[in-house]
UniProtKB/TrEMBL annotation:
Residues that hold GTP 2 according to the record: 185-192, 232-236, 297-300
Keyword line: GTP-binding, Nucleotide-binding, Repeat, Ribosome biogenesis
InterPro entries, alphabetized: G_ENGA, GTP-bd, GTPase_Der, KH_dom-like, KH_dom-like_a/b, P-loop_NTPase, Small_GTP-bd
MF terms in GO: GTP binding; ribosome binding
Domain EngA-type G: from-to ranges: 4-169, 179-352
UniProt subunit comment: Associates with the 50S ribosomal subunit.
Provenance organism: Ruthia magnifica subsp. Calyptogena magnifica
GO biological process: ribosome biogenesis
PANTHER family membership: GTPASE DER
TM spans (from-to): none
Known role: GTPase that plays an essential role in the late steps of ribosome biogenesis.
Protein's UniProt name: GTPase Der
Amino acid sequence: MGLPIICLVGRPNVGKSTLFNRLSHSRQALVSDFEGLTRDRQYAEVLLDNDTQTFATIIDTGGLTNKNNLVDSSIQGQVLNALEESDIIYFIVSSRDGVIGLDLEIVSRLRKLKKNIILVCNKAEGLNPALAAEFFELGLGEPMLISAEHGQGIADLIDTTLPLLPKVTIDEIVEVEGITVAVLGRPNVGKSTLINRILGQERVLVMDFPGTTHDSIYIPFEHEGQKYTFIDTAGIRRKRSTHEKVEIFSIIKAIDALERAHVVILVLDAQVGVIEQDATLLGMIIDKGKALLIVINKWDGLDDYQKQEVKRKLEIKLSFINYASVHYISALHAFGVGKLFTPINQSYQNAGEQHSTSVLNKILEKANQDHQPPPVKGRRLKIKYVNQTDVFPPTFTFHGNHLQNVPNAYERYLKNFFINALQLTNTPIKIKYKSSDNPFRDRKNILNARQIGKKRRLMKFVKKR
């Protein structure tokens, strides 16, 4: 049995994401005065009560409306899916707005689910009981007054929730482990569609216009016994095209997802090709040293000539990142999606593998035989040995003399040589240098009486000239 699930439901801008962040002790969900910010459902495992070690999964959902447009209809579908899997529902209303018609409509839908519903009256700073009076007409019993933003009333809400939770022992709780895969790309290249195809369900909201995804959505998943966590991120645009504060926060969270990932899937649009912003994203991924797969989406929309042209241009524009494999897919029609698991697993294994010092030094010996280190400032570099000092990415430290100014060309040669020799795929390597210290540095040479006399005679001779 998994953890009990608590679903946070309500109309837009009543504080669902603020309460989600308060319960999860995080800033996982984006919060702003911007109505309708949350669109996908966001999950977090939380410790509700430390004394009884009671854990639960909470779900943040988008705001329910009575509008009949594409976005709101899709958000409603996401909310209904969350309600189906929940054990307890927090129906969140705003004490500042009072009871409005939309609250009554939502209550009538929730009653049909026949689940435990707790009426949560948010934005009730000071917890004045008079604020709760009009909410009794919703027919859900006594409202729980809270202020999610200031943390007021949260303890009472948890105390009311605990008796309603299905019993789960601590032994049944399993830590989420596995390969963390971040899906990055520009807006509207098909990132969410790709994740939905991988999962086999409409887990994240998909629309045919840019900017649908705001949050970075963390989704646990298991495939053939291997656990994964896929991260669907907001599309990253050029800085000068980013105006709204919400979008800036979304990009910050996408970059944070990049930091956390073991493997990155960069999604490109086959019909557009590689543009300046794609190159910028590639630069970010390279700087972080992440294992990388490049996925060319919407491949089915091209004819044979266009496909050849795209491949030719990719070879030119992606030549600086030759360690990453390129995969051609159609996320919409699931073409080529199932083949991504093998390179993902291989990339994770390569990026986290430890190599013995003896093997590395044999490779170094061959590298030196094929191409000796060049002289720098009249001194030839001397690399004595190498060892691995870190993983994700594999980090090799080279020890020797005069290694402070290794030429970039020779460093690229070493990287490529080691990648080929170790048969690493889709993962870069990082190189560090450590030069031997001069044992006589900062040691003053003390002259004896004979040497002092010789020095004085020499100085007299020089002055006479």
